[in-house]
Structure formats: structure tokens, C-alpha cells
Amino acid sequence: MNFDSGLPIYMQIVEIIKTRIVTGILKSGEKLPSVRDMATELKVNPNTIQRSYGELERENIVFTQRGMGTFVTDEESTLKGLKATMAREKIISFMEDMERLGYGRDELPGIIEKMIVEGK
Amino acid sequence: MNFDSGLPIYMQIVEIIKTRIVTGILKSGEKLPSVRDMATELKVNPNTIQRSYGELERENIVFTQRGMGTFVTDEESTLKGLKATMAREKIISFMEDMERLGYGRDELPGIIEKMIVEGK
Amino acid sequence: MNFDSGLPIYMQIVEIIKTRIVTGILKSGEKLPSVRDMATELKVNPNTIQRSYGELERENIVFTQRGMGTFVTDEESTLKGLKATMAREKIISFMEDMERLGYGRDELPGIIEKMIVEGK
Amino acid sequence: MNFDSGLPIYMQIVEIIKTRIVTGILKSGEKLPSVRDMATELKVNPNTIQRSYGELERENIVFTQRGMGTFVTDEESTLKGLKATMAREKIISFMEDMERLGYGRDELPGIIEKMIVEGK
DNA sequence: GTGGTCTAGACCACA
DNA sequence: GTGGTCTAGACCACA
């Protein structure tokens, strides 16, 4: 059990798949699991996966070949863009979190540098 | 519905309460909701909240007065420590996430600085 | 039937296990009975034993290996510390008992010495 | 709930009353609670209290006046003897406990003296 | 088989 | 009303 993130399930799954692509678990041009398999793995209704795949296709991150399945795009520029966008989102939410903890944006680069040094 | 974070519910609740304290929603010395009220609010069993409160008490973040309730500590040093620890954790998980996206730790301060400038 | 000691059951069990460790019935590194077996032996609910084991783990007196069981620590310094703490507590409660019987603390060493001589 | 001490209930009650006498809660010559009241206070059957009072009478620690009740003896020598016996028992069980923890009898006076000094 | 978590529901002491 | 403890019983992950 987990508390509600607010995000609809199919979008949570979109995020999961994007992360898998961007971290290399799913590679450029590779076939995604079938809608049925993915539904079984994530324990959701196949319709939900269908919707997630649809959203990913709309964003040009995957493409479907009739009768063959769904594949990660092989356009490197799209994948680069995806990576950049996800990084951007991570950074923004990180900055917001830190702001709520009382750390101003200007302090962050310094704090991180300090932690890198200490962490060594 | 939300995908399993792996963290047990009572620890998720601990995190929720820590965040409320550190962001000022719950103030130093203030009374927490009663075990029963919190259980109703979060829709879990009172025993689960009991366990969360117990964990927070072990960490000296709250204290309980028999028959009166559970209160946020008023030791400022503890609260400062909590803030620092939560910030540290946020930074570490941020650095790990970014690393998985292919950004080296040394790049991060620069990237953030760039984003701050752009964001203005 | 026995009159209430005031100590909760799970803490009474903690004391029982500590005594077993310190007197050598349970040895360093040895496996404790499973939660279920201990519950059967002591005729309490498994949850209560779970809580006792949890408390012992927090005190670093035992550690658990997932799926394997709960074991007495093999850190000799911890075991020595446990022995010393239990002795200290025994001495303190002995001194308090004797004080209530009208014997001052300063008299105690003398009284004990006398009894040792007589007892021979 | 408390784990079995092995001692029969009526003897546990004898010990409770002896402690009350020796610590001055019940004074020399004073009336003990009626069998019924004592039974209510300790939540046992009046017959059990009857048996405890009988045992105390056999030991000359209390005496019964028909129609009046049960009273603590006013023979000071008996009370002194009781105190000495209880102290003796406390010391013996203390020495046994410490022995089981690995402390020899000869060490005890020294250990206690050390703790008295530290405790100041 | 092992410990870990959770719910449902009860009863207790303290205020 | 408040937290503290306990039982009964379920389901889970890890080995």
C-alpha cells in the first residue's frame, strides 16, 4: 500500500517506462513487453497499459508496428530530448523540495559541491 | 492506486510526519493528531499509526505525555538535525537519480546554476 | 497466577531472553527460537514475541537474517555491556530493597561480608 | 499478565504482607484489612487470604482476636527477626543472581562499595 | 520455515 | 480522550 501520488495510474506507468528507457533497461529500437505481459507484470488492466503505450506513442517515444508490437524509438534526438526533460523535471522537483526545507536555490550548487567533497 | 515503494506503511507515515514538521506544518512543541484521528485521516489501522509514533519517539522527534497526547519535540537541535538529515537524503537520492540519467556528480552544480539563470 | 509486576509482557520476555543470554543458556551467535515457537513456549501471541525480538534488535543484542531467524549478537563488547548493565540494575534494586528494610547503603558491604563468613 | 513465579498464590500474599509490615506500611499492633477487603483488593478468593493469614499466624507475625480481626504482632523481637530474615533472603537471592552473572561472592562487597562511591 | 507488516478489535492506565 | 498493550488472524518477501 502506498499513499496517493495524485498521478493517474496510466501516467505512473508512462513514467516507469520512460525511466526504463532513459536508464538503458529498455534500449533504442528494442521491443517493449506485450500489453498483456506488461499488464501481468504491473498487475493492472491491459486497457491501462494500452493507454500508457498510446501516450508514449503520442510523445514519439515509442512506435507501434501492426502485428509486431511496440518498440522504443531509434531516433537518437528524441531519446536525448527525453533524457534532458526528465533531468529537468528531477532538478525542478529537487529545488522545490529543498526550498521547502529552507534552502534557497542559490545555495544549492554550493551545498552539493560540499557533499561531493565530503562523500569522497 | 500507486505502485509499491517498498517502504512499509508505518515508515511512509513517519516520512509524512517528518516532512510536516520540517516544513513547518507541525511546529515545535505542537500536539500531533491523536492516534485515532491520524488513523482516520490516513485510512489505516490505529496500530499502524501507533507504530509510526513509536518510531518517531525512538528518534526523539516527538515525545508523548500519558493521557495527553504526542507532541513535536521542542529541542531545537533535534529539529535542526532532522532538517539536515532530510536534506542530505534528498541530495543523495537526487545525485543517484541524475547519475542513472548519465550526469556525473561533478556536473551537477554547473547544471543547477545554469537552470537557475534560465529560470529567471 | 502471579501479581502484576507492572512491566508489559513483551518487556518481561525481553528480560527473560537477556537473562538466558547472560547466563549462557543462549550463547553468542546462537539462533533464538522462532517467533512462533517462542510464542508457543511462553503461551503468548506471536506478535508479542515479535515486539520483544524487535526491542532486543534495537538494543543490538540480537540481529535477524531475513528468512533465516533471529540470532544472539556475536559482538563480545555488546554482550559484556549487557552483563554489566544487568548487574548494575540488580545491585541498584538490591540496595533500594535493603534501604526500605532499614539498612543504609554504607552498611551493605559489611553485612554481605559477614554473611559470606557465616555461610562457610 | 506475569510469568509463573512457582510460588503458590497464598505464599505470594504472605510475602506481600510481610513486606508491608517490614517497610512500615502496616505498623506494630495495627489491624490488617478484613479477609473480605483484602480479597477484594488483591482480586483473589477470600479462602486464599484466610490461608495467608493462617500462615502468618503460625509464624507469630500476626494474631487473631475472635470477632475483632487480625493484628500485626506487637512483639518487637518477632518483628526484628522478620526484618532480619527478609534481609537475609534478599541478600542470598542477590548473591545467587550475581553469581549466575559471573560475579563471585567475594567480589560483591567491593563492587557495591564502588557503586556507592560512583553514585554520589 | 522465517521474520515483517497490517487489520480488527479489545482492554488498560492516566488525566 | 489519550496513548499502550495484547490477541487473533492474515498475507507478504526471502531462503
Protein described:
- The structure is a homotetramer.
- Chain A has 2 domains: about 10-75, Winged helix-like DNA-binding domain superfamily/Winged helix DNA-binding domain (Arc Repressor Mutant, subunit A, Orthogonal Bundle), CATH 1.10.10; about 75-120.
- Chain A is about 60% helix and about 5% strand.
- Chain A has 5 helices and 2 strands, in the order H-H-H-E-E-H-H.
- The first copy, chain A, has helices at about 10-20, 35-40, 45-60, 75-100, 110-120, and strands spanning about 60-65, 70.
- A two-stranded antiparallel sheet of chain A has the order 1-2.
- In chain A, strand 1 (about 60-65) and strand 2 form a beta hairpin.
- Chain A is elongated, with a radius of gyration of 18 Å.
- The mean pLDDT of chain A is about 90.
- Chains in contact: A-B, C-D.
- The interface of C and D includes residues 97, 102, 108 and 116 of C.
- Chain B binds a DNA duplex (15 and 15 nucleotides) through helix 3.
Main sheet of chain A: which strands, in order across?
A: 1-2
Describe the biggest sheet of chain A?
2 strands, antiparallel
Overall pLDDT of chain A, averaged?
90
The CATH class designation of the largest domain in chain A is Mainly Alpha
The CATH superfamily label of the largest domain in chain A reads: Winged helix-like DNA-binding domain superfamily/Winged helix DNA-binding domain
- The domain tally of chain A reads 2
CATH architecture label name of the largest domain in chain A? Orthogonal Bundle
Biggest interface and which pair forms it?
A: A-B, 37 and 37 residues
Measure the end-to-end span of chain A.
Answer: 37 Å
Roughly what fraction of the amino acids of chain A lie in strands?
5-15%
Radius of gyration of chain A: 18 Å
Assembly context of the chains: homotetramer
Secondary structure: number of strands of chain A: 2
Number of discrete helical segments of chain A = 5
**Global structural class of chain A:** mainly alpha
The helix fraction of chain A, in percent, is: 55-70%
The SSE order of chain A reads: HHHEEHH
